[in-house]
Amino acid sequence: MKRFWIQSKGMGIMFFLPLLGYIFFIPLCVMLINKDVEEAEQRFITAQQMCYQFIPILSTVWMYMFQREYVEGEGREILILGGKIPMFSFIYWILNLPFIWVAIYIQKDTEGYREDLFYEMLIASFMICGLVFFLNFAVNSIAQSLLLVVLYIWLSNVDIENILVFRNGLQDVQRISSYFYVVLKGGGMFSEQAAVYIVMGMLFWLGGLFKARRL
To answer: Taking burial as the number of CB atoms within 10 A of a residue's CB, which of 93, 108, 163, 171 is the most buried?
Structure first.
């Protein structure tokens, strides 16, 4: 725990970035967007979409800061031999969960759907943090890993089905049906999708552990 405290303290003010995002930025954005929206369903959809866009990436900040010294720091080979990377990485993911709940709970637009949305964000953050763990050690670059993760989350929220329908007709909707099972699209999460995300997350975490041990 002493080492965990020292690492967290070493992050400086960056340690508070996810907290500001969870507690202030996401609720404020939802409030501003829904200011003139009266329909309860539309208000929730907006809140849900904002959570999908920002909570997964916010949940990776502490992991990026923690793993930076192991990926790019001097003497990283000696640090990696310590074997604490997976444990501390998992702890930093767990540390996000109470604040994810707060981010959802303080939004009145999520009332009645809070448990379901938290469950979705728990799975989403688990998968994304696993992806970060794997990419950091697979590409040996925090910047490249961050770029790939941001690109993935952005592509997840692109309204690709409407784009394809507009260009090529309704047949494309059937062709991209599997697309929704591997991207974190902010329109809810079916049980089949949740299972896919959990499996993907487990594979990413195991892949990250393997790559870290191989360095």
So the answer is: 93
- One-letter amino acid at 92 equals Y
Nearest to 123 by CA among 45, 194, 48, 18: 194
Coil, helix or strand at residue 182: coil
3-state SS assignment for residue 26:
helix
Q: For the chain, what is the mean pLDDT?
A: 83
Model pTM score: 0.86
Q: Is the pLDDT of residue 73 over 80?
A: no
Per-residue pLDDT, 81? 47
Distance CA 196, CA 138 (A): 22
> Which of 176, 193, 181 lies closest to 116 in space, CA to CA?
193
> Comparing C-alpha atoms, which of 131, 110, 137, 114 is closest to residue 183?
131
